[in-house]
Amino acid sequence: MTYRLALFDIAGTTVSDPGFVAQAFVGAMTAAGHPIEAETCRALMGYRKPEAIARLLGDAATPAKVEAIHDDFVARMLRCYREAPGVAPLPGAESTFALLRAHGIQVALNTGFSRDIAEAIVARLDWHGRIDALIASDEVPEGRPAPHMAQALLRRFGLDDASALVKIGDTEVDINEGRNAGAGLVVAVTTGAFTRAELEPYRPDAIVDSLFELPALLGIGTDARDDDARGRAA
Taking the mean position of all CA atoms in its chain, how far away is CA 25? Predict the structure, then answer.
């Protein structure tokens, strides 16, 4: 199979998340008078954030309340991603991006965050030159697990066959997004929200413990760590 586009999630897949997302959810919900525990947020990782907030509010959800809490959530996330320590690429992310692009595979990022948060992360890590595209959940009619972000990127790159797409993420909504988009390969990673045992019921094509393992799945190398080692030796 010839893959042409690799679509990566951000937090928990390519970028470390030392609890920022859960902390922002807890803080915004608590400030609005709806305190929650951090563990409550875990099942909603990967979803478009206004939808996640509506689910957390349940019967108390109104459009105005969801919007206000989301605005607070965004402000908290922007502070974290612009200023807080601990924002870093996950091991293997940058070397894997480079290896895929060297083999003619475009690299794109997508997320359940809004565009402003996604841009803050990419700017903080200086990734604009390392990726080919970025798309966020507020740029399409529906966020994940709907396939709209993946489909928009396929159109952007002129790819008519969705089987040329590889989807990589750390949540069940990433897996289902890939399935709904008709991706040729759906890969789950254990570096984020869910363990291998929690990901297995959603039946991704592969589960990896590190992005270093991805190139071998695509048939373009054995392990991206080899490229890291060569780079250090050069």
Answer: 17
If we measure between CA atoms, which residue out of 176, 193, 214, 173 comes closest to residue 12?
Answer: 193
DSSP H stretches of helix in 157-206: 172-181, 196-199
Under CATH, to which class is 5-16+89-233 assigned?
alpha beta
Band of pLDDT at residue 224, cut at 50, 70 and 90? low
Which pLDDT tens digit goes with each residue over 2-48?
Answer: 899 999 999 999 999 888 888 999 999 999 999 999 888 888 888 88
pTM of the model: 0.89
Q: How many CB atoms lie within 10 A of CB 204?
A: 22
Distance CA 219, CA 12 (A): 24
Q: What span, in angstroms and rounded, lies between the C-alpha atoms of 121 and 154? A: 23
Range(s) of the chain covered by CATH 3.40.50.1000: 5-16+89-233
* Chain region(s) in the chain for CATH 1.10.150: 20-83
- pLDDT score, position 233: 44
Q: What CA–CA distance (Å, rounded) separates 73 from 29?
A: 8
